[in-house]
């Protein structure tokens, strides 16, 4: 059996900043003889918090629909100067910081995964954490 590494990541974005978190896991193919039904043993080892990327300009739409009413955000946009200056100062402070790596301890870090469908663009798996539908990042299914 061979051991491989995978990384699950997510990115959170707001008008002021973008931040991301990832969890690294090692996995082992438990049954390599059955290509269409591969059980995996997965163990998460480490989480990584990347420093937020502060946006240089707060990008708000001109109007926003709130509870069926079209609200103009122009007055708010005009008063964002001081906030944008504060955000720029924070961005300068944290821009060179390295990612924060945190070990993931305990027995609950282990899981299993069985792939029930696999092609060149899509993988459908189930495990003790639920059902997972994974699509390659450059796939056109993500644009729909």
Automatic annotation (TrEMBL):
The keyword Plastid applies. GO terms for cellular component: plastid. It comes from Solanum commersonii (Commerson's wild potato). Pfam families: PAP_fibrillin. It is found in: Plastid. This is Plastid lipid-associated protein/fibrillin conserved domain-containing protein. InterPro entries: PAP, PAP/fibrillin_dom. It comes from the Eukaryota. Keywords: Plastid, Transit peptide. Residues 2-134 form the Plastid lipid-associated protein/fibrillin conserved domain.
């Amino acid at each position: 059996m061979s051991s491989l590494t995978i990384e699950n990541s997510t990115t959170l974005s707001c008008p002021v900043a973008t931040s991301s978190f990832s969890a690294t896991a090692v996995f082992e193919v438990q049954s390599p003889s059955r290509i269409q039904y591969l059980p995996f043993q997965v163990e998460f080892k480490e989480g990584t918090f990347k420093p937020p990327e502060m946006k240089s300009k707060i990008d708000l739409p001109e109007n926003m629909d709130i509870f069926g009413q079209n609200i103009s955000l122009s007055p708010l946009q005009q008063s964002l100067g001081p906030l944008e200056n504060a955000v720029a100062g924070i961005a300068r402070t944290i821009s060179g910081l390295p990612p924060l790596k945190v070990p993931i301890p305990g027995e609950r870090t282990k899981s299993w995964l069985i792939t029930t469908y696999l092609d060149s663009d899509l993988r459908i798996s189930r495990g003790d954490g639920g059902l997972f539908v994974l699509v390659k990042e450059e796939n056109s299914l993500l644009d729909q």
